[in-house]
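Notes from hallway chat w/ T.B., transcribed later so I don't forget. T.B. wanted the structure written out for a chain they're using in a teaching module, and asked if we could keep both sequence and structure tokens in one place. Agreed to drop them here.
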Amino acid sequence: MKLFKWTGPLEDAGNLPEEARASLMNNDEEVLVLQEAKTTTLNNAVEYDILDQSGDLPSGRFAVLNNIPVTEEGRETFEQRFNNRARLIEAEPGFVAIRVLRPVHSGTYVILTMWEDEESFKNWQESQAYGKAHAKRGTQDGVDQRPNIFQDLLLSQHIKNKYK
């Protein structure tokens, strides 16, 4: 299964079946469309392989997309890290879905989480489970400290769903 990410004016999103997508407003003029499918009719959509998943994307109202540039030689280590994650986030109040996405045509992975609302996401960031899930970050055991894993850019997008 693939996930296609597309951003643009709402009127250019096309007629995808409602059950096949999650549509969220990025601002008053742009919409983010996430479609899980084998192929897409969305022009210029960014294609990802789904490495790991839990939950139902269209049920979410607040999306967080962590864009993580990974070097070619760091892909195996990065993917192994997420394949062996503790899966604590799934038990958090307000959690809806997660997708770990491998880029098909670039080096930037996306960790996509969907939440009931922004407050649920912020509560997760302040939780003991978050601390445990990120406990190795910045230590010599952390994947972020290994050479040749990450490129120099890390972006996070927070997008609210104004349609639901």
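Follow-up for T.B.: Residues 68 and 109 are 5 Å apart (CA to CA). Might be a good example for the class.
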